[in-house]
Design a protein that fits this description.
Helices cover 6% and strands 32% of the residues. The chain is mostly beta strands. The protein folds into four domains: 126 residues, Immunoglobulins (Immunoglobulin-like, Sandwich), CATH 2.60.40; 86 residues, Immunoglobulins (Immunoglobulin-like), CATH 2.60.40.10; 153 residues, Sandwich (Immunoglobulin-like); 189 residues, no CATH class. InterPro entries: Ig-like_fold, KIAA0319-like, Lcl_C, PKD_dom_sf.
Protein backbone atom coordinates (compact mmCIF):
# COMPACT_ATOMS: atom_id res chain seq x y z
CA UNK A 1 0.00 0.00 0.00
CA UNK A 2 1.31 3.53 -0.85
CA UNK A 3 -0.03 7.05 -0.01
CA UNK A 4 0.49 10.81 -0.68
CA UNK A 5 0.29 13.75 1.75
CA UNK A 6 -3.12 14.74 0.30
CA UNK A 7 -5.18 11.59 0.12
CA UNK A 8 -4.09 8.01 0.47
CA UNK A 9 -5.27 5.28 -1.76
CA UNK A 10 -3.85 1.84 -1.25
CA UNK A 11 -2.59 0.07 -4.29
CA UNK A 12 -2.57 -3.58 -3.48
CA UNK A 13 -0.59 -6.00 -5.49
CA UNK A 14 -2.80 -8.87 -6.26
CA UNK A 15 -1.20 -12.29 -6.72
CA UNK A 16 -3.57 -13.71 -9.24
CA UNK A 17 -3.90 -16.96 -11.10
CA UNK A 18 -2.98 -17.15 -14.75
CA UNK A 19 -6.53 -16.42 -15.81
CA UNK A 20 -6.86 -13.24 -13.67
CA UNK A 21 -6.62 -9.54 -14.62
CA UNK A 22 -6.83 -8.76 -18.25
CA UNK A 23 -5.93 -12.29 -19.24
CA UNK A 24 -2.66 -13.54 -20.68
CA UNK A 25 -1.23 -14.23 -24.09
CA UNK A 26 1.36 -16.96 -24.90
CA UNK A 27 3.70 -17.01 -27.80
CA UNK A 28 6.09 -19.80 -28.65
CA UNK A 29 9.57 -18.53 -29.19
CA UNK A 30 11.82 -19.80 -31.88
CA UNK A 31 13.94 -21.51 -29.24
CA UNK A 32 11.13 -24.00 -28.47
CA UNK A 33 10.67 -25.20 -24.89
CA UNK A 34 7.58 -24.60 -22.75
CA UNK A 35 5.38 -22.23 -24.71
CA UNK A 36 2.59 -22.12 -22.13
CA UNK A 37 3.71 -18.58 -20.99
CA UNK A 38 0.96 -16.58 -19.22
CA UNK A 39 1.14 -13.15 -17.41
CA UNK A 40 -1.42 -11.26 -15.33
CA UNK A 41 -1.03 -7.41 -14.84
CA UNK A 42 -3.36 -7.24 -11.86
CA UNK A 43 -6.87 -5.93 -11.29
CA UNK A 44 -8.14 -2.59 -12.53
CA UNK A 45 -7.95 0.08 -9.79
CA UNK A 46 -8.73 3.71 -8.88
CA UNK A 47 -6.07 5.97 -7.43
CA UNK A 48 -6.11 9.59 -6.27
CA UNK A 49 -3.98 12.17 -8.04
CA UNK A 50 -0.54 12.52 -6.49
CA UNK A 51 -0.58 9.02 -4.96
CA UNK A 52 2.26 6.53 -5.53
CA UNK A 53 0.95 3.31 -7.07
CA UNK A 54 2.81 -0.04 -7.18
CA UNK A 55 2.55 -2.36 -10.17
CA UNK A 56 3.35 -6.08 -10.09
CA UNK A 57 2.67 -8.85 -12.56
CA UNK A 58 2.26 -12.61 -11.97
CA UNK A 59 3.73 -14.95 -14.61
CA UNK A 60 3.60 -18.71 -15.11
CA UNK A 61 4.86 -21.20 -17.68
CA UNK A 62 7.68 -20.79 -20.11
CA UNK A 63 11.27 -20.89 -19.11
CA UNK A 64 11.72 -19.53 -15.62
CA UNK A 65 14.03 -16.63 -16.42
CA UNK A 66 11.87 -13.62 -17.37
CA UNK A 67 12.29 -10.07 -18.61
CA UNK A 68 9.50 -7.50 -17.99
CA UNK A 69 8.52 -4.23 -19.77
CA UNK A 70 5.84 -1.76 -18.56
CA UNK A 71 4.13 0.96 -20.69
CA UNK A 72 1.08 3.22 -20.35
CA UNK A 73 -1.43 5.05 -22.54
CA UNK A 74 -1.83 7.96 -22.05
CA UNK A 75 1.82 8.23 -21.23
CA UNK A 76 2.97 7.92 -17.63
CA UNK A 77 6.42 7.95 -16.09
CA UNK A 78 6.79 4.38 -14.78
CA UNK A 79 9.71 3.54 -12.50
CA UNK A 80 11.07 0.03 -13.31
CA UNK A 81 14.71 -0.26 -12.28
CA UNK A 82 15.13 -4.07 -12.54
CA UNK A 83 13.70 -5.64 -15.73
CA UNK A 84 14.07 -9.08 -14.25
CA UNK A 85 11.61 -8.09 -11.53
CA UNK A 86 7.95 -7.57 -12.36
CA UNK A 87 7.55 -4.82 -9.68
CA UNK A 88 7.23 -1.22 -10.94
CA UNK A 89 5.53 1.99 -9.73
CA UNK A 90 4.29 5.43 -10.85
CA UNK A 91 2.99 8.63 -9.27
CA UNK A 92 -0.58 9.47 -10.29
CA UNK A 93 -0.56 12.74 -12.24
CA UNK A 94 -2.75 15.78 -11.44
CA UNK A 95 -6.08 15.70 -13.24
CA UNK A 96 -9.15 17.90 -13.31
CA UNK A 97 -11.53 14.96 -13.81
CA UNK A 98 -11.38 11.15 -13.60
CA UNK A 99 -8.90 9.88 -16.24
CA UNK A 100 -8.25 6.27 -17.30
CA UNK A 101 -4.70 5.04 -17.95
CA UNK A 102 -4.20 1.67 -19.71
CA UNK A 103 -1.01 0.05 -18.38
CA UNK A 104 0.48 -2.89 -20.28
CA UNK A 105 3.11 -5.38 -19.04
CA UNK A 106 5.02 -7.62 -21.44
CA UNK A 107 7.14 -10.62 -20.38
CA UNK A 108 9.75 -12.59 -22.34
CA UNK A 109 11.47 -15.80 -21.30
CA UNK A 110 14.81 -17.24 -22.36
CA UNK A 111 13.08 -19.57 -24.74
CA UNK A 112 11.91 -16.67 -26.88
CA UNK A 113 8.33 -16.82 -25.70
CA UNK A 114 6.37 -13.56 -25.04
CA UNK A 115 3.11 -12.76 -23.25
CA UNK A 116 1.37 -9.53 -22.27
CA UNK A 117 -1.55 -8.26 -20.21
CA UNK A 118 -3.07 -4.90 -19.29
CA UNK A 119 -4.80 -3.23 -16.37
CA UNK A 120 -6.80 0.01 -16.30
CA UNK A 121 -5.93 2.51 -13.57
CA UNK A 122 -8.37 5.41 -13.11
CA UNK A 123 -6.83 8.58 -11.62
CA UNK A 124 -9.32 10.86 -9.85
CA UNK A 125 -8.78 14.45 -8.63
CA UNK A 126 -8.64 15.42 -4.97
CA UNK A 127 -11.68 17.63 -4.25
CA UNK A 128 -10.85 20.57 -1.96
CA UNK A 129 -13.98 21.81 -0.26
CA UNK A 130 -15.13 25.38 -1.08
CA UNK A 131 -14.99 28.19 1.48
CA UNK A 132 -18.14 30.19 2.17
CA UNK A 133 -17.40 33.87 2.87
CA UNK A 134 -19.97 36.48 3.93
CA UNK A 135 -19.09 40.18 3.65
CA UNK A 136 -21.23 42.41 5.86
CA UNK A 137 -21.47 46.16 5.13
CA UNK A 138 -20.61 48.69 7.82
CA UNK A 139 -23.06 51.32 8.98
CA UNK A 140 -21.53 54.72 9.57
CA UNK A 141 -21.29 55.51 13.27
CA UNK A 142 -22.09 51.98 14.49
CA UNK A 143 -19.93 49.03 15.47
CA UNK A 144 -19.42 46.17 13.06
CA UNK A 145 -22.56 44.07 12.42
CA UNK A 146 -24.77 46.69 14.10
CA UNK A 147 -27.57 48.36 12.14
CA UNK A 148 -30.50 50.72 12.65
CA UNK A 149 -34.04 49.52 12.27
CA UNK A 150 -35.80 49.75 8.94
CA UNK A 151 -32.72 49.90 6.71
CA UNK A 152 -31.62 47.78 3.78
CA UNK A 153 -28.65 45.49 4.38
CA UNK A 154 -26.96 43.47 1.64
CA UNK A 155 -24.91 40.43 2.61
CA UNK A 156 -22.39 39.53 -0.07
CA UNK A 157 -21.20 35.96 -0.58
CA UNK A 158 -19.59 36.50 -3.96
CA UNK A 159 -16.09 36.27 -2.45
CA UNK A 160 -16.64 32.59 -1.58
CA UNK A 161 -13.88 30.47 -3.12
CA UNK A 162 -13.02 26.97 -4.34
CA UNK A 163 -9.26 26.46 -4.51
CA UNK A 164 -9.39 23.55 -6.96
CA UNK A 165 -11.99 25.01 -9.29
CA UNK A 166 -11.26 24.48 -12.96
CA UNK A 167 -12.69 27.93 -13.74
CA UNK A 168 -12.15 30.69 -11.18
CA UNK A 169 -15.01 32.69 -12.64
CA UNK A 170 -17.47 29.92 -11.83
CA UNK A 171 -15.92 28.29 -8.76
CA UNK A 172 -19.23 28.17 -6.85
CA UNK A 173 -22.13 26.47 -8.59
CA UNK A 174 -24.81 27.14 -5.99
CA UNK A 175 -25.60 29.60 -3.18
CA UNK A 176 -28.23 29.03 -0.53
CA UNK A 177 -29.16 31.53 2.20
CA UNK A 178 -31.21 30.68 5.29
CA UNK A 179 -32.18 32.58 8.42
CA UNK A 180 -31.48 30.70 11.62
CA UNK A 181 -32.53 33.17 14.34
CA UNK A 182 -34.59 36.29 14.97
CA UNK A 183 -37.59 38.00 13.38
CA UNK A 184 -38.15 36.57 9.90
CA UNK A 185 -36.87 39.04 7.32
CA UNK A 186 -35.97 36.56 4.59
CA UNK A 187 -39.43 35.50 3.36
CA UNK A 188 -39.98 36.67 -0.19
CA UNK A 189 -36.31 37.46 -0.75
CA UNK A 190 -34.11 35.78 -3.35
CA UNK A 191 -32.12 33.20 -1.40
CA UNK A 192 -30.21 31.46 -4.20
CA UNK A 193 -28.07 34.41 -5.31
CA UNK A 194 -24.55 35.35 -4.28
CA UNK A 195 -26.06 38.23 -2.28
CA UNK A 196 -28.94 38.42 0.18
CA UNK A 197 -30.88 41.66 0.63
CA UNK A 198 -32.92 42.21 3.78
CA UNK A 199 -34.63 45.10 5.55
CA UNK A 200 -33.95 45.22 9.25
CA UNK A 201 -37.07 45.02 11.43
CA UNK A 202 -38.54 48.01 13.28
CA UNK A 203 -39.36 47.01 16.83
CA UNK A 204 -39.64 48.40 20.35
CA UNK A 205 -36.70 46.27 21.45
CA UNK A 206 -33.32 45.57 19.93
CA UNK A 207 -33.19 42.53 17.67
CA UNK A 208 -30.64 39.79 16.95
CA UNK A 209 -30.73 38.13 13.51
CA UNK A 210 -28.62 35.19 12.32
CA UNK A 211 -28.10 33.89 8.79
CA UNK A 212 -26.26 31.06 7.08
CA UNK A 213 -24.78 30.80 3.61
CA UNK A 214 -24.13 27.37 2.11
CA UNK A 215 -22.04 27.22 -1.05
CA UNK A 216 -21.59 24.21 -3.32
CA UNK A 217 -18.70 23.69 -5.72
CA UNK A 218 -18.83 22.01 -9.11
CA UNK A 219 -17.88 18.64 -7.54
CA UNK A 220 -20.85 18.82 -5.18
CA UNK A 221 -18.92 19.60 -1.99
CA UNK A 222 -20.42 22.22 0.33
CA UNK A 223 -19.34 24.67 3.01
CA UNK A 224 -21.41 26.83 5.35
CA UNK A 225 -20.71 30.20 6.97
CA UNK A 226 -22.92 32.07 9.43
CA UNK A 227 -23.30 35.71 10.47
CA UNK A 228 -25.19 37.46 13.26
CA UNK A 229 -26.24 41.11 13.20
CA UNK A 230 -27.73 43.33 15.86
CA UNK A 231 -30.57 45.76 15.09
CA UNK A 232 -31.30 48.85 17.17
CA UNK A 233 -34.73 49.52 18.60
CA UNK A 234 -36.84 52.16 16.89
CA UNK A 235 -36.24 54.66 19.70
CA UNK A 236 -32.47 54.20 19.45
CA UNK A 237 -32.31 54.47 15.66
CA UNK A 238 -30.84 57.87 14.78
CA UNK A 239 -31.64 60.04 11.77
CA UNK A 240 -29.12 60.10 8.92
CA UNK A 241 -27.71 63.59 8.32
CA UNK A 242 -25.46 65.05 5.62
CA UNK A 243 -24.68 68.77 5.77
CA UNK A 244 -23.47 68.80 2.15
CA UNK A 245 -20.19 69.80 0.59
CA UNK A 246 -17.45 71.98 1.99
CA UNK A 247 -16.82 75.07 -0.11
CA UNK A 248 -14.51 77.94 -0.81
CA UNK A 249 -15.89 81.45 -1.37
CA UNK A 250 -15.02 85.13 -1.12
CA UNK A 251 -16.45 87.42 1.52
CA UNK A 252 -19.99 88.41 0.60
CA UNK A 253 -20.60 85.52 -1.80
CA UNK A 254 -23.35 82.95 -1.35
CA UNK A 255 -22.66 79.78 0.62
CA UNK A 256 -24.98 76.96 -0.37
CA UNK A 257 -26.32 75.11 2.67
CA UNK A 258 -28.06 72.15 1.11
CA UNK A 259 -28.41 69.40 3.69
CA UNK A 260 -29.94 65.97 3.50
CA UNK A 261 -31.69 64.21 6.37
CA UNK A 262 -33.84 61.11 6.68
CA UNK A 263 -35.03 58.49 9.12
CA UNK A 264 -35.98 54.87 8.56
CA UNK A 265 -38.43 55.01 11.47
CA UNK A 266 -41.91 56.36 10.53
CA UNK A 267 -42.73 57.17 14.15
CA UNK A 268 -39.63 59.40 14.32
CA UNK A 269 -41.14 61.89 11.89
CA UNK A 270 -41.29 64.82 11.54
CA UNK A 271 -37.66 65.88 11.53
CA UNK A 272 -36.70 69.41 12.51
CA UNK A 273 -33.60 71.26 11.33
CA UNK A 274 -31.29 73.93 12.66
CA UNK A 275 -28.26 75.49 10.95
CA UNK A 276 -25.65 77.26 13.03
CA UNK A 277 -22.45 79.09 12.13
CA UNK A 278 -19.28 78.82 14.19
CA UNK A 279 -18.30 81.85 16.23
CA UNK A 280 -14.78 82.30 14.86
CA UNK A 281 -15.79 85.40 12.85
CA UNK A 282 -16.15 88.73 14.63
CA UNK A 283 -16.13 92.43 13.83
CA UNK A 284 -12.33 92.44 14.12
CA UNK A 285 -12.17 90.52 10.85
CA UNK A 286 -14.07 93.20 8.95
CA UNK A 287 -12.25 95.65 6.65
CA UNK A 288 -10.63 98.33 8.77
CA UNK A 289 -11.73 101.04 6.34
CA UNK A 290 -15.41 100.06 6.39
CA UNK A 291 -17.60 103.07 7.04
CA UNK A 292 -19.27 101.48 10.00
CA UNK A 293 -17.62 98.18 10.91
CA UNK A 294 -19.90 97.47 13.86
CA UNK A 295 -23.08 98.02 11.86
CA UNK A 296 -21.74 96.02 8.93
CA UNK A 297 -20.80 93.17 11.26
CA UNK A 298 -24.28 93.18 12.74
CA UNK A 299 -25.90 93.18 9.29
CA UNK A 300 -23.71 90.31 8.13
CA UNK A 301 -24.55 88.28 11.24
CA UNK A 302 -28.25 88.89 10.73
CA UNK A 303 -28.00 87.78 7.10
CA UNK A 304 -25.51 85.01 7.79
CA UNK A 305 -28.07 82.21 7.36
CA UNK A 306 -31.18 83.00 5.35
CA UNK A 307 -33.48 80.56 7.14
CA UNK A 308 -31.77 78.44 9.75
CA UNK A 309 -34.79 76.13 10.10
CA UNK A 310 -34.78 75.02 6.43
CA UNK A 311 -32.91 71.92 5.33
CA UNK A 312 -31.89 73.69 2.11
CA UNK A 313 -30.96 77.32 2.62
CA UNK A 314 -27.98 79.63 2.09
CA UNK A 315 -25.67 81.97 3.93
CA UNK A 316 -23.68 85.05 3.08
CA UNK A 317 -19.96 84.59 3.58
CA UNK A 318 -18.79 86.91 6.35
CA UNK A 319 -16.29 89.70 5.77
CA UNK A 320 -12.74 88.67 6.62
CA UNK A 321 -9.32 90.22 6.14
CA UNK A 322 -7.47 86.89 5.86
CA UNK A 323 -8.29 83.33 4.95
CA UNK A 324 -10.73 82.01 7.55
CA UNK A 325 -12.42 78.64 7.87
CA UNK A 326 -16.01 79.02 8.99
CA UNK A 327 -17.97 75.95 10.11
CA UNK A 328 -21.68 75.50 9.42
CA UNK A 329 -23.40 72.78 11.44
CA UNK A 330 -26.75 71.18 10.63
CA UNK A 331 -28.51 69.64 13.63
CA UNK A 332 -31.45 67.33 12.97
CA UNK A 333 -33.89 66.28 15.70
CA UNK A 334 -36.44 63.47 15.32
CA UNK A 335 -39.77 62.98 17.11
CA UNK A 336 -38.10 60.59 19.58
CA UNK A 337 -35.76 63.32 20.74
CA UNK A 338 -32.69 61.97 18.98
CA UNK A 339 -30.30 64.63 17.69
CA UNK A 340 -27.65 64.16 15.02
CA UNK A 341 -25.42 66.84 13.53
CA UNK A 342 -23.04 67.17 10.63
CA UNK A 343 -20.67 70.01 9.80
CA UNK A 344 -19.17 71.48 6.65
CA UNK A 345 -16.18 73.80 6.56
CA UNK A 346 -16.23 76.84 4.33
CA UNK A 347 -12.98 78.56 3.46
CA UNK A 348 -13.62 82.32 3.20
CA UNK A 349 -11.09 84.65 1.59
CA UNK A 350 -11.21 88.46 1.43
CA UNK A 351 -12.81 89.66 -1.77
CA UNK A 352 -9.85 90.68 -3.95
CA UNK A 353 -9.71 94.06 -5.62
CA UNK A 354 -11.28 93.32 -9.00
CA UNK A 355 -9.38 94.32 -12.13
CA UNK A 356 -12.30 93.70 -14.43
CA UNK A 357 -16.01 94.31 -14.04
CA UNK A 358 -18.45 91.55 -13.25
CA UNK A 359 -21.34 90.94 -15.63
CA UNK A 360 -24.08 92.61 -13.61
CA UNK A 361 -26.13 89.40 -13.59
CA UNK A 362 -27.92 88.73 -10.30
CA UNK A 363 -30.71 86.51 -11.56
CA UNK A 364 -30.44 82.75 -11.29
CA UNK A 365 -31.92 80.14 -13.56
CA UNK A 366 -33.93 77.02 -12.88
CA UNK A 367 -34.78 74.50 -15.58
CA UNK A 368 -37.72 76.67 -16.68
CA UNK A 369 -37.48 80.14 -15.18
CA UNK A 370 -35.32 83.09 -14.15
CA UNK A 371 -35.52 84.30 -10.58
CA UNK A 372 -33.64 86.39 -8.05
CA UNK A 373 -34.15 83.70 -5.38
CA UNK A 374 -31.21 81.52 -4.38
CA UNK A 375 -31.17 78.24 -6.34
CA UNK A 376 -29.32 75.56 -4.39
CA UNK A 377 -30.26 72.88 -6.92
CA UNK A 378 -28.42 74.78 -9.66
CA UNK A 379 -25.16 75.88 -8.02
CA UNK A 380 -22.22 77.77 -9.49
CA UNK A 381 -24.26 80.34 -11.42
CA UNK A 382 -23.04 83.83 -12.22
CA UNK A 383 -25.69 85.28 -9.89
CA UNK A 384 -24.19 83.36 -6.93
CA UNK A 385 -20.59 84.44 -7.40
CA UNK A 386 -18.52 87.55 -8.05
CA UNK A 387 -18.54 91.24 -7.31
CA UNK A 388 -22.20 91.79 -8.19
CA UNK A 389 -23.59 89.50 -5.48
CA UNK A 390 -20.93 90.67 -3.01
CA UNK A 391 -22.06 94.26 -3.62
CA UNK A 392 -25.69 93.19 -3.25
CA UNK A 393 -24.81 91.74 0.14
CA UNK A 394 -23.20 95.01 1.22
CA UNK A 395 -19.57 93.92 1.35
CA UNK A 396 -17.99 96.07 -1.37
CA UNK A 397 -16.83 99.56 -0.58
CA UNK A 398 -16.85 101.63 -3.76
CA UNK A 399 -14.75 104.65 -4.64
CA UNK A 400 -17.72 105.98 -6.58
CA UNK A 401 -21.14 104.60 -7.36
CA UNK A 402 -22.86 102.43 -9.90
CA UNK A 403 -25.27 99.57 -10.28
CA UNK A 404 -24.38 96.07 -9.10
CA UNK A 405 -20.60 95.63 -8.86
CA UNK A 406 -19.82 98.50 -11.24
CA UNK A 407 -18.00 101.48 -9.70
CA UNK A 408 -18.01 104.76 -11.62
CA UNK A 409 -16.97 108.36 -10.93
CA UNK A 410 -18.18 111.31 -13.00
CA UNK A 411 -15.56 113.76 -14.35
CA UNK A 412 -16.16 117.35 -15.44
CA UNK A 413 -14.80 119.08 -18.54
CA UNK A 414 -11.43 119.53 -16.82
CA UNK A 415 -11.18 115.87 -15.82
CA UNK A 416 -11.85 116.54 -12.15
CA UNK A 417 -14.13 114.34 -10.07
CA UNK A 418 -17.72 115.48 -9.79
CA UNK A 419 -20.27 114.66 -7.17
CA UNK A 420 -22.46 111.75 -8.12
CA UNK A 421 -25.48 114.01 -8.00
CA UNK A 422 -24.06 116.47 -10.56
CA UNK A 423 -26.42 117.20 -13.47
CA UNK A 424 -23.72 117.49 -16.11
CA UNK A 425 -20.47 115.63 -16.67
CA UNK A 426 -18.22 115.00 -19.65
CA UNK A 427 -16.44 111.72 -18.88
CA UNK A 428 -16.71 108.73 -16.58
CA UNK A 429 -13.88 106.93 -14.81
CA UNK A 430 -14.33 103.22 -14.24
CA UNK A 431 -12.78 102.68 -10.80
CA UNK A 432 -12.45 98.93 -11.40
CA UNK A 433 -10.59 98.94 -14.70
CA UNK A 434 -9.06 102.44 -14.43
CA UNK A 435 -10.43 103.30 -17.90
CA UNK A 436 -11.84 106.76 -18.62
CA UNK A 437 -14.76 106.88 -21.09
CA UNK A 438 -16.37 109.64 -23.08
CA UNK A 439 -20.06 110.40 -22.48
CA UNK A 440 -22.45 110.94 -25.40
CA UNK A 441 -24.51 114.11 -25.67
CA UNK A 442 -27.80 115.18 -27.24
CA UNK A 443 -26.82 118.63 -28.48
CA UNK A 444 -25.58 118.14 -32.04
CA UNK A 445 -21.96 118.62 -31.06
CA UNK A 446 -19.08 116.25 -31.79
CA UNK A 447 -20.22 113.59 -29.26
CA UNK A 448 -23.88 113.54 -30.25
CA UNK A 449 -25.70 110.26 -29.66
CA UNK A 450 -27.06 110.06 -33.20
CA UNK A 451 -23.73 110.16 -35.01
CA UNK A 452 -22.42 106.97 -36.65
CA UNK A 453 -19.12 106.16 -38.30
CA UNK A 454 -17.55 103.59 -40.60
CA UNK A 455 -14.50 101.70 -39.36
CA UNK A 456 -11.17 103.07 -40.53
CA UNK A 457 -7.56 102.81 -39.36
CA UNK A 458 -4.34 103.32 -41.28
CA UNK A 459 -2.35 101.57 -38.53
CA UNK A 460 -3.56 98.23 -37.06
CA UNK A 461 -6.22 97.21 -39.51
CA UNK A 462 -5.83 93.56 -40.51
CA UNK A 463 -4.58 94.45 -43.98
CA UNK A 464 -7.52 96.66 -44.96
CA UNK A 465 -7.82 100.24 -43.68
CA UNK A 466 -11.58 100.40 -44.04
CA UNK A 467 -13.95 103.00 -45.44
CA UNK A 468 -13.29 106.73 -45.04
CA UNK A 469 -16.99 107.49 -45.03
CA UNK A 470 -19.28 104.50 -45.22
CA UNK A 471 -22.80 104.45 -46.52
CA UNK A 472 -25.37 105.62 -43.97
CA UNK A 473 -22.90 107.29 -41.64
CA UNK A 474 -23.89 110.60 -40.02
CA UNK A 475 -21.59 113.00 -38.13
CA UNK A 476 -20.38 116.60 -37.89
CA UNK A 477 -17.02 115.79 -39.53
CA UNK A 478 -16.00 115.89 -43.17
CA UNK A 479 -15.31 112.13 -43.12
CA UNK A 480 -17.42 110.02 -40.80
CA UNK A 481 -14.99 107.30 -39.80
CA UNK A 482 -13.55 106.09 -36.50
CA UNK A 483 -10.03 107.44 -37.06
CA UNK A 484 -11.33 110.88 -37.96
CA UNK A 485 -13.44 110.87 -34.81
CA UNK A 486 -10.46 109.94 -32.61
CA UNK A 487 -8.44 112.76 -34.17
CA UNK A 488 -11.23 115.29 -33.61
CA UNK A 489 -11.83 114.32 -29.97
CA UNK A 490 -8.10 114.55 -29.16
CA UNK A 491 -7.91 117.93 -30.87
CA UNK A 492 -10.77 119.06 -28.63
CA UNK A 493 -8.99 117.71 -25.53
CA UNK A 494 -12.08 116.20 -23.96
CA UNK A 495 -11.88 116.41 -20.14
CA UNK A 496 -8.35 117.75 -20.52
CA UNK A 497 -7.01 114.54 -22.11
CA UNK A 498 -5.38 114.12 -25.52
CA UNK A 499 -4.86 110.37 -25.69
CA UNK A 500 -8.32 109.14 -26.62
CA UNK A 501 -8.48 105.94 -28.67
CA UNK A 502 -10.79 103.20 -29.88
CA UNK A 503 -11.53 100.56 -27.21
CA UNK A 504 -10.56 96.94 -27.57
CA UNK A 505 -13.24 94.27 -27.55
CA UNK A 506 -12.53 93.42 -23.88
CA UNK A 507 -12.50 97.07 -22.81
CA UNK A 508 -15.82 97.87 -24.43
CA UNK A 509 -17.36 94.67 -23.10
CA UNK A 510 -16.35 95.72 -19.55
CA UNK A 511 -19.13 98.33 -19.71
CA UNK A 512 -21.79 95.70 -20.43
CA UNK A 513 -24.32 95.31 -17.63
CA UNK A 514 -25.96 92.07 -18.69
CA UNK A 515 -28.33 92.08 -15.74
CA UNK A 516 -30.35 94.88 -17.30
CA UNK A 517 -33.17 93.64 -19.51
CA UNK A 518 -35.49 96.64 -19.93
CA UNK A 519 -33.01 99.19 -21.33
CA UNK A 520 -29.50 99.42 -22.73
CA UNK A 521 -27.01 96.94 -21.24
CA UNK A 522 -25.08 99.75 -19.54
CA UNK A 523 -25.55 101.88 -16.44
CA UNK A 524 -27.39 104.82 -18.02
CA UNK A 525 -27.07 106.85 -14.83
CA UNK A 526 -23.46 107.34 -15.94
CA UNK A 527 -23.71 106.69 -19.69
CA UNK A 528 -26.88 108.39 -20.96
CA UNK A 529 -27.84 108.55 -24.63
CA UNK A 530 -26.31 105.17 -25.38
CA UNK A 531 -29.30 104.18 -27.50
CA UNK A 532 -32.89 103.03 -27.31
CA UNK A 533 -34.45 99.61 -27.36
CA UNK A 534 -35.72 98.73 -30.80
CA UNK A 535 -35.82 95.95 -33.34
CA UNK A 536 -32.39 97.01 -34.57
CA UNK A 537 -29.07 96.43 -32.79
CA UNK A 538 -27.21 99.33 -31.20
CA UNK A 539 -23.74 98.60 -32.51
CA UNK A 540 -20.58 100.22 -31.10
CA UNK A 541 -17.25 99.72 -32.88
CA UNK A 542 -14.18 98.18 -31.25
CA UNK A 543 -10.60 98.64 -32.49
CA UNK A 544 -10.27 94.95 -33.33
CA UNK A 545 -10.41 93.68 -36.96
CA UNK A 546 -12.18 90.36 -37.48
CA UNK A 547 -10.74 87.25 -39.11
CA UNK A 548 -14.20 86.52 -40.48
CA UNK A 549 -14.75 87.87 -43.98
CA UNK A 550 -11.06 88.00 -44.93
CA UNK A 551 -10.62 88.62 -48.66
CA UNK A 552 -7.18 88.24 -50.25
CA UNK A 553 -5.64 88.27 -46.77
CA UNK A 554 -7.40 91.55 -45.97
CA UNK A 555 -9.80 91.77 -43.02
CA UNK A 556 -12.94 93.33 -44.44
CA UNK A 557 -14.74 93.24 -41.08
CA UNK A 558 -14.23 94.51 -37.53
CA UNK A 559 -15.78 93.55 -34.20
CA UNK A 560 -18.68 95.49 -32.73
CA UNK A 561 -20.86 95.11 -29.61
CA UNK A 562 -24.63 95.51 -29.47
CA UNK A 563 -25.65 97.41 -26.32
CA UNK A 564 -29.25 96.38 -26.90
CA UNK A 565 -28.84 92.59 -26.74
CA UNK A 566 -25.38 92.35 -25.16
CA UNK A 567 -23.98 90.23 -27.99
CA UNK A 568 -20.97 90.83 -30.22
CA UNK A 569 -20.51 90.28 -33.95
CA UNK A 570 -18.34 91.32 -36.87
CA UNK A 571 -19.52 94.04 -39.23
CA UNK A 572 -18.22 95.13 -42.60
CA UNK A 573 -15.94 98.09 -42.05
CA UNK A 574 -18.11 100.26 -44.28
CA UNK A 575 -21.09 99.76 -41.94
CA UNK A 576 -22.43 102.64 -39.87
CA UNK A 577 -22.07 102.15 -36.11
CA UNK A 578 -21.68 104.23 -32.98
CA UNK A 579 -18.37 104.97 -31.23
CA UNK A 580 -17.41 105.43 -27.59
CA UNK A 581 -13.76 106.37 -27.09
CA UNK A 582 -11.61 105.45 -24.10
CA UNK A 583 -8.28 106.31 -22.54
CA UNK A 584 -5.95 105.25 -19.71
CA UNK A 585 -6.56 101.96 -17.90
CA UNK A 586 -4.56 99.87 -15.46
Amino acid sequence: MASTKHSILVATVFMLAACGGGGGDSDSGSGGGNSDLVINAGDDATVTEGASYSLSAVVSGGNEEYTYRWSASPSLTITHEDTSDSAASFEAPSVSSATEYTITVTVNDTGGNEASDLTVITVVPINIAPEAIIEVPEWDGLDANNFPGGVEVIFDGSSSTDDDAADDSASISDYSWTQTDGTNVITGEETNLSTLTIVTPIANDAQTLSFELTVTDSEGTTDTESVTIFVQSESDTLPVVDAGSSQGVFSGETIILDGDASTSIPSALPLTYDWERSNNVSSTTLPVNAADAATLSQNVDIQAIDDEDDLSTFAIAPAVTEYTVVAYTLTVTDANGNQVEDTINVGVRPMPTPLINDTGVLQQATNNALTEAQQNEWPGQDGQRGADVVEQNGLIEKAGRGKAGFDYTRLNANGDEQDASADTWSCVRDNVTGLVWEVKTDDGTLQDKDYTYSWYSDDVNGGYEGDLSGSGTVCSLTSCNTQAYVTALNAQGLCGFYDWRMPTHQELFSLMHLGISDSMTIDEDYFPYTGVLSANPVWYWTSVPSADGVNSDDAQNAWALDFDSGVDNFLNKSSAAKVRLVRAGR
